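Dear all,

This email documents one entry for the complex benchmark we are building for the journal club exercise. For each entry we list the sequence lines for every component of the assembly. Then comes the predicted three-dimensional structure of the complex as a token string, followed by one or two observations. Please use this as the template for your own entries, and keep the labels exactly as they appear.
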Amino acid sequence: MKNEWPLWEIFIRGQHGMSHRHVGSLHAPDAAMAIKNARDVYTRRNEGVSIWVVEAQHVAASSPSDKGPLYEPSESKVYRHPTFFDIPEEVGAM
Amino acid sequence: MYAQMIKTASDGVKSREDMSDEERAFQDKIDNDIKIEPKDWMPDDYRRTLIRQIGQHAHSEVVGQLPEGNWITRAPTLERKAILLAKVQDEAGHGLYLYSAAETLGESRDELINLLHEGRMKYSSIFNYPTLNWADIGAVGWLVDGAAIVNQVALQRTSYGPYSRAMIRICKEESFHARQGYHAIMAMAFGTPEQKKMAQDAVNRLWFPAIMMFGPNDSESTHSEQSMAWKIKVKSNDELRQQFVDQTVPQILYLGLDLPDPGIKWNEERGHYDFSDPDWSEFFNVIKGNGPCNTDRLAARRKAWDDGQWVRDGLLAHSRKKAAARMAAE
């Protein structure tokens, strides 16, 4: 509909040094108002100490149909995980 | 229940043989509890049904602010007032989470609000009942939000990712709503005889409207099968209603109040409480728009929307002017 406020994606960083995490979206006329609204909607119970807002139309996303080509190759590369390697107990923690 | 009588857009559940390859892959994902995400392929009817259900759910959150907002300025203590204010603010947030979820399906919030204001979408029947006094506010938090929790806990497992995530967020906050309501009713039930009488009256009036929130009996619920197969709906109306009755009856008894329905009786054999059916003709009448407050609620919504128009326009004009100035400076 015309004259609808644009949609913003909201990212919040919690208290304990975690990275910003996507929590949802909301409408706002500009970035400053998006931050104000995000504060009211998404941090009413001490959920965060920092807010990022990004206008939704600027988010580029991978396509669901690319799931195979993008993520399947890593399935066959089990040696990328530490548990692939058996280390003798005598060596100690590693 | 916050979404009642959602007409599933479908001609009935298709057999696997009748499904296209896309439909079969889609149904397999649902059967394996893999969430459907906004950009994934989905049948048009799935999309349409979800928009109806999530939209009605969102409208219920927003319209639900009205009966409670009615008592903010008349709360008996400053603490109760601050609590009620926080609760009503939560409801606005819940509406927003849900409109956002609906939006990922391609229907904007303003479009949905417009459909509500034109009377082409509904909200839960419960909000067409009045809140006559302070006891009603306690009973609404306890019974209405309590019923909402039963429904929404089940819906956390719904198949559409954004809807499920909205439900998880909402459930975390909803428990505060039910508990603050019960706390307010406790104060009255254990208060003076007059207060206890008010608490009893509120429970008596709101009991049947609360159990109507789950929608008609399963035998009358014609559109459920496809919604269940799609996991848009996770439990049947009657299952949810029974669960609500079972958890609520002991809470009424704890308050020392009389049960609001003489038909409530523990059934040893079933392991559940028996209870009377509400007057379904009243339910259908309220749904049709003839409840005690339908006209008031919709009028209040439209007025809020119209009165806010200059704010929305002003802020948008301001942001466009700023953006134009920035462009010119670059």
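Observations: Chain B has a mean pLDDT of 94. Residues 21-291 of chain B form a domain with the Ferritin fold (CATH 1.20.1260.10).
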